Amino acid sequence: MRYAIKGLGLSAALAAACLAGAAGTATAAPAHPEGLYAPSALVLTVGKGDDPATATVERAVVLRCSPAPGGDHPAPERACAELRSAGGDFASLVEAESDRVCPMVWEPVTVTADGTWDGRRVSYAHTFPNACVMADRAGAVFSF
Amino acid sequence: MRYAIKGLGLSAALAAACLAGAAGTATAAPAHPEGLYAPSALVLTVGKGDDPATATVERAVVLRCSPAPGGDHPAPERACAELRSAGGDFASLVEAESDRVCPMVWEPVTVTADGTWDGRRVSYAHTFPNACVMADRAGAVFSF
């Protein structure tokens, strides 16, 4: 039986569940106990192009922030601290501006962050006009 | 091959950077050279609920498949082999059916995969009606 209908078939499923229960079928329990912390694990990428869906990913690193900073990100402690102080809001991380002078060249670089932060799913993308602006604004999280 | 060509283009990029530097502009060069392989790094999660956006993530693992299988996934070699033989198509991984008898109980479990596969961004989610069906169909990739 396919479960493609998922939510739509809820009442039917519940009815079926009663029948199944009456028939004495064993109920499935999760194979692993739940963790004591909300997982935070992210895949961060940098790629050329201005469309996150088609940009060619050039570099990808893994950043873990719970239970402890880790992954192959070059500075997980700093990156996790930045993210934590921003409450996991990636947009606020790339907003900061400095006095650095960057050429006004359109060679777009797109950064993405996908995974889970504090137990919630994250899917973030931001396009910088060029690598200089990215280096200026991306902070520790996207510096790899 | 595409990536090899890019690597070769690096010297041209550096030359351009020198010229731009001579012109007095602060041109940014990428901080790191491009990799010679397309990155494959994924955050895989399992959570309760039928909506990937709101499901509470219970477990999250990292799976890396290039340059070598790794991450904190319990069986990265098998998971990467499965994904590779499926051409990175997560949907085809969860389609397989077996003879296992599962109760028809609606206790939805949602699995997600986010990150990058072969240099392309991946965002996949699938809801199983209950943990038994998940254990039956999820294969090595989502067995953690």
UniProtKB/TrEMBL annotation, chains A, B:
Assigned keywords, A-Z: Disulfide bond, Protease inhibitor, Secreted, Serine protease inhibitor, Signal
Disulphide linkage map: 65-80, 102-132
Family, per entry: Belongs to the protease inhibitor I16 (SSI) family.
Keyword presence, DNA-binding: no
Higher taxonomy: Bacteria, Bacillati, Actinomycetota, Actinomycetes, Kitasatosporales
Transmembrane segments annotated in the record for this chain: none
Protein's recorded name: Probable subtilase-type protease inhibitor
GO terms for MF: peptidase inhibitor activity
